Amino acid sequence: MTKPFEKIIIANWKMQLTIEESVAEAKEMKKLLSKSKLPNSTAVVVCPSFLAMSEVAKVFKGSDIILGAQDTYPGDVGSHTGEVSLRNLKTLGCEYVILGHSERRAMGETDESINLKVKATLEHDMLPIVCVGETYDERKEEKTNFVVIHQIYEALKDVNIREGQQIILAYEPVWIIGSGQVIDANEADRMSQIVRQSYVDAMNGEKLDALNIIYGGSVTAETVAQFTNLEKIKGVLVGGASLDGKTFIDIVNKA
Ligand code: PGA
């Protein structure tokens, strides 16, 4: 069971850091965060590589930083070579799980598998961060709304969100991720309304309290507030700018 947060700032370290580097940045984040006067309604989540999670978990123990994973397998045990179970992630204290990131969709992750993972994550009382967003070509072909609505519908098909559980939908325009460009705040605002409406429709108008919308794509300390100031956007998912502990905590403080 996760309490609702006013702000959610998530670091996605992807495959960028070694275990040693991950531990060093985690320590820096913990030190800097302990000095910032953040309200405890702000969730700061860090998603290291699977390999670094156990060491990073030790660093975060006793701090306010929440451990997240970059993906999972929707089953507890079995012959699934190379996969990582929610059961094991949970033993590390992992609470949030990124699902359907565009980099995984590009490697063949299907809507169907994302849906299974969303269900399994909620069954384990962990919080799914479901990523949705259009590619550059889809935007050019005016398919943006369709793509995002479709991804949300598919991810939430027959999903049961229990009392007190939360879910995050992260709108990430794929063509902005890692590009250093920012999307216009008005467009992020418009997309957040589409994301919200799709959630309402997919959930038959129920569990609106469980929804948290965040934005992702080349977010920096300079640009974070233009997204978190938007009415329907509660936070950000940060890749490149989260790899340095000091830069990430700067984003957290400016969000
Ligand atoms: P970026 O990555 O901040 O480097 O664009 C965001 C993401 O992939 O979630």
Describe the structure.
This protein is α/β, with parallel strands linked by helices. It has one domain: TIM Barrel. 40% of the residues lie in helices and 16% in strands. It contains ten helices and eight strands. An eight-stranded parallel barrel has the order 1-2-3-4-5-6-7-8, surrounded by six helices. Helix 9 links the parallel strand 7 (211-216) and strand 8 (235-238). The longest helix is centred in the C-terminal third of the chain and has 18 residues, at 185-202. The chain is globular. Bound molecules: 2-phosphoglycolic acid. 2-phosphoglycolic acid (PGA) binds at residues 12, 172, 177-178, 216-219, 237-241.
List the helices and strands and how they pair.
Blueprint: E1 7-12, H1 19-35, E2 42-47, H2 50-60, E3 65-69, H3 86-91, E4 96-99, H4 102-105, H5 111-123, E5 127-132, H6 136-140, H7 144-155, E6 167-171, H8 185-202, E7 211-216, H9 224-228, E8 235-238, H10 245-254
Parallel strand pairs: 1-2, 1-8, 2-3, 3-4, 4-5, 5-6, 6-7, 7-8
Helix pairs in contact: 1-2, 1-10, 7-8
Bound molecules: 2-phosphoglycolic acid.
Question: Could you give a short description of this structure?
Answer:
This protein is of the alpha/beta class and 255 residues long.
Task: Summarize the main sheet.
Answer: 8 strands, parallel, barrel
Number of helices: 10
**N/C terminus separation:** 25 Å
Instruction: Spell out which ligands are present.
Output: 2-phosphoglycolic acid
Across the major sheet, the strand order is 1-2-3-4-5-6-7-8
Shape, per Cα inertia axes: globular
